[in-house]
Amino acid sequence: MSWTATARYGLEPAPGGLAFVQDLLNTLSAGQRREPDLLRTVEDARAWLDQALRSWGGVTRRPIPGIELTAEDVEGLRGLRHDLAQILDARHGAPATESGPAASVLTLPTALRLDEHGVVHAEPRGTGWRQVASLALTELYQAQCTDTLRRLKSCRNPRCLTAFYDRSRNNSGVWHDVHVCGNAANLRNYRARKRAGADRV
Description:
CATH architecture: Orthogonal Bundle
Strand order of the largest sheet: 1-2
Distance between the termini: 57 Å
CATH class: Mainly Alpha
Shape: globular
Largest sheet: 2 strands, antiparallel
Number of helices: 6
Radius of gyration: 18 Å
Helix content: 40-55%
Number of strands: 4
Structural class: mainly alpha
Number of domains: 1
Low-confidence stretches: 97-103
């Protein structure tokens, strides 16, 4: 599947439908070399969403919903992305901002459907950005139930912030790429310690 927002940061997608949430988070202008915001305009947002829904349908083998976006919906999507990033950071111990998780309560309609094989599916409802949010929250809930949500993280490098799926055995990853962001952070910390030592002399 082609998760365009995540692929541009050289990252592997999260498993199953959780990759949709990761891709939404990665529409942000992030990375060491700033990529453009994929929710900057209505046209950008529609192009991203069309591809993301196709990829979501491919990995989940579920019908692809038709979702129309207006300029107001794009504002809503950007707000959703911000709130999801804040909540994700709070789950992993990062300090919350003033507009953080406390203000991020969403109640959205979702339908449960029993298919011919006896499998229950949660189906997003609503229109525009609320339908996207309903789909994202459905995937977050399913990842929570399978204990994979704890592996979806934002890079701790404040100059990066890309969303990555931590595949380390003990789920201890904090950088989307240890060679890029981890080394840069370690170098900054080393220089800060060296300066602090020189000041004490």
